[in-house]
């Protein structure tokens, strides 16, 4: 299991999961752009789906840990921690 901090960008032109961005506290978050609007949890679900695809896991293995109504979210990904952490480093590199 791995907790991943993300910065969501709803209503993006193109969906993408790549690169890191620093938040107000200087913590690095994975950037996730989705085309879904931030209405009725659609963007949050799209973010979870995009992260699942980027990490190569089933969508059911990614869940929202915190930040349901915020652009800054914490996602829980179920799986081998070492494999997930290695993939996170690749995605953060861009």
UniProtKB/TrEMBL annotation:
A GO CC term assigned to this protein in UniProt: cytoplasm
Top-level division of the source organism's lineage: Bacteria
Organism encoding this protein: Lichenicola cladoniae
UniProt-recorded name of the protein: UPF0235 protein HN018_06290
Gene3D superfamilies xrefs: YggU-like
Stretches assigned to coiled coil: none
HAMAP family: UPF0235
Pfam families: DUF167
Protein family per UniProt: Belongs to the UPF0235 family.
Lineage summary: Bacteria, Pseudomonadati, Pseudomonadota, Alphaproteobacteria, Acetobacterales
């Amino acid at each position: 299991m791995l907790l991943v901090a993300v910065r969501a960008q709803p209503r993006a032109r193109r969906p993408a999961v790549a690169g890191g961005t620093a938040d107000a506290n200087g913590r690095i978050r994975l950037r996730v752009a989705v085309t879904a609007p931030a209405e009725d949890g659609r963007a949050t679900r799209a973010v979870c789906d995009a992260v699942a695809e980027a990490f190569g896991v089933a969508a059911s293995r990614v869940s929202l840990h915190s930040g349901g109504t915020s652009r800054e979210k914490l996602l829980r990904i179920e799986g081998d921690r070492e494999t997930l952490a290695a993939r996170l480093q690749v995605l953060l590199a861009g």
